[in-house]
């Protein structure tokens, strides 16, 4: 996890082993009107990751804020399959690579 003044970036796998601690750090970071969370480099996203996203959404709502989340292909796929792409408190964006994979324009 890389945390800067502009955004929080998470890479690698989000699974049962780390989703709780990642959720705790992301939720603690929601202090402004908009918090940018970059999951564009997440390569594996389990059901525990879905619970993490739900926690982030709840924290954003509680803070009267928005978490803007950039999703990698694996993240978007799980959220889409679980019909969790419109959670209140979140604005989800597919990363440019994810969009290219979806529409077939990737080389």
From TrEMBL:
<dbReference type="InterPro" id="IPR002645">
    <property type="entry name" value="STAS_dom"/>
</dbReference>
<protein>
    <recommendedName>
        <fullName>STAS domain-containing protein</fullName>
    </recommendedName>
</protein>
<feature type="domain" description="STAS">
    <location>
        <begin position="8"/>
        <end position="56"/>
    </location>
</feature>
<dbReference type="InterPro" id="IPR036513">
    <property type="entry name" value="STAS_dom_sf"/>
</dbReference>
């Amino acid at each position: 996890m890389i945390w800067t003044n502009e955004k929080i970036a998470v890479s690698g796998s989000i699974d049962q082993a780390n989703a709780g601690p990642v959720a705790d750090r992301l939720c603690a970071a929601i202090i402004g009107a908009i918090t940018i969370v970059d999951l564009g480099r997440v390569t594996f996203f389990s059901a525990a990751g879905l619970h993490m996203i739900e926690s982030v959404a709840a924290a954003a709502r509680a803070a009267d804020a928005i978490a803007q989340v950039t999703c990698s292909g694996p993240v978007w796929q799980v959220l889409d399959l679980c019909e969790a792409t419109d959670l209140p408190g979140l604005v989800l964006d597919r990363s440019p690579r994810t969009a290219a994979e979806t529409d077939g324009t990737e080389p």
